[in-house]
Amino acid sequence: MTKKSLVLSFVAALGVATASAQAEDQQLNLYSARHYQTDEALYGEFTRQTGIKINRIEAKEDELLERIRNEGANSPADILITVDASRLARADELGLFAPIKSAVLEERIPPHLRTDTWIAFSTRARVLIYNKETVKPEQVQNYEDLADAALKGKVCSRSGSHPYNLSLGASLIKHNGADQTEQWARAVVANFARAPKGGDTDQIRSVAAGECGVAIANSYYFARLMNSDKPEDQRVVESVGYVWPNQDNRGTHINVSGAGILKHAPNKDAALKFLEYLASDQAQIYFANGNNEWPAVTGVAIENPALEKLGGFKVDTLPMTELAGAVPEAQRIFDRAGFR
Ligand code: FE
Fold it and tell me: DSSP letter at 147?
């Protein structure tokens, strides 16, 4: 099959294009690990502004990477949107991305949130959630504090191999060095209330239930509980407190949702237009708000009651390129430390 017929059969199979698809139709094939309500408005507005139709392929993050790899030079994928710097870095390592050159993106997206091949469009913070009865906020002001022997039997986390924790580990390596990060990881493992299991929301619930004294979680999971009208979620929110870690020093570690243009993208011009569109004020609000995140572009007003209530904080502006580079070492350190 030719590349073009592959693309057409591919989109037809998904029911997103019909026989009326003509050669002159401008299209964009988006491989996305996102599926939020606000995405409809996000993509619809792009099509309205540019006339470029978006074909969306949604799958889990790691499956998308595998799929693009397997499709190779015949891949119809133009854009990959996914979460976490470590996954975006993995796609980059595999050579899946094309270089990005755009004056618009350079002007709109802060330097620490840009790399040569992928751009962050929203940010989330890795925060500490503590049980108000068993842990005092003064005990957990920094990620480093999780290694304090006073927290023995109180610390909870999802798996150390999860991208969110690998990115946090990478930031610790860049700030504190590999040796100190390994000591930290060993001490945190020694402080665990239980072996890592579940996702971040499970950790927050376990903190509320008293099984854990403090847990690491991404901010949007907490914001989601805050925005929930379920009484059981509101009870969880009431029994825990949150800390923006490392406010007196480098700032709180943030992670990102981001996107890149694929090396074999058949529609590279449309792909660049799409990335530039994502950096516009309105798209930034849709993109970030869909998952209770913050816009990457500074000065874009958020429209989210939970995020407004959480307030502002000092951000660790370690460049994403540096963070991404330390991810493989973070994995090796966590493996040795038994943080699995
Ligand atoms: Fe998540």
Answer: G
